[in-house]
Amino acid sequence: MKYSIIIFSLLFIACGADYLPKPKGYNRIDLPEASYQPTPDSLPYFFEYSKHATLLRDSSWITERYWINLHYPEMGATIQVTYKPVTDSIIREYLSDSYKLTSQHNVKAYAIEESILELPNGLYASFTELEGEVPTPAQFHITDKDSINHFLRGALYFRTATKNDSLAPVIDYLKQDMIHMITSLEWTK
Questions:
Q1: Does pTM top 0.85 for this prediction?
Q2: What are phi and psi of 64, to 5 degrees?
Q3: Residue 154 phi/psi, 5° resolution?
Q4: Structural domain contains residue 27
């Protein structure tokens, strides 16, 4: 009987009318200061990429030796960079494939915005931003001036189930890294 009075008293006190809902919380994301390093001399292209990224060979490096992944371990993100030398009129096929890969996200994207960037070295790049729960929120492709020698494509991927709206600061940070990669791009061969 003694214990039931104590339990009843605790329940009565705990059920007060002063309940306040907790405000919605967001993950704290501390982004590092942007700093860059050059790609290795062994590639047919040069650009500066983040010092916070690890440059790794793509899994298909045996057949595509100039494909790389820029892995951001602290952010759970990877920028996949693919390079193809252009021969004959195959550039149309590469561009078509690039647009097809982007359009596959139409199912989940509620906005796809393409920007054409004129670069300091006279090249033009297509930079595409995708809004919504898409696996790749940013992509780009670029060719040389006459589109006769080089084709480079990049896509940002996350290896997490976190919703893209929660990752918005990280996505914006990595988009700036991608823009820096594009603007520092030079063909070496």
A1: no
A2: -125, 80
A3: -135, 145
A4: no
Q: Token pair for residue 176?
A: 């700036």
Asked if the structure places residue 19 within a domain, the reply is no
Domain membership of residue 75 as a residue range: 32-187
Which pLDDT belongs to residue 112?
A: 78
56-68 per-position pLDDT tens digit: 998 876 788 899 9
Q: Total structural domains in the chain?
A: 1
CATH number for the domain spanning 69: value is 3.40.1000
Rounded to an integer, what distance in angstroms lies between the CA atom of residue 134 and that of residue 119?
27
Q: How many residues does the chain have?
A: 189
In this structure, the strands spanning 124-132 and 54-57 are: unpaired
Q: 130-179, pLDDT tens digit by residue?
A: 888 888 899 999 987 776 788 899 999 988 766 777 888 999 999 999 99
Task: Decide: 105 and 135 in contact? Cβ < 8 Å.
Answer: yes
- Token look-up 């040069």 returns 46
In whole angstroms, what is the distance from residue 89 CA to residue 123 CA?
19
Cβ neighbours, 10 Å, residue 157? 16
CA distance 109 to 132: 5
Q: Quick check: helix, strand or coil at residue 22?
A: coil
Tokens, residue 123: 């090249």
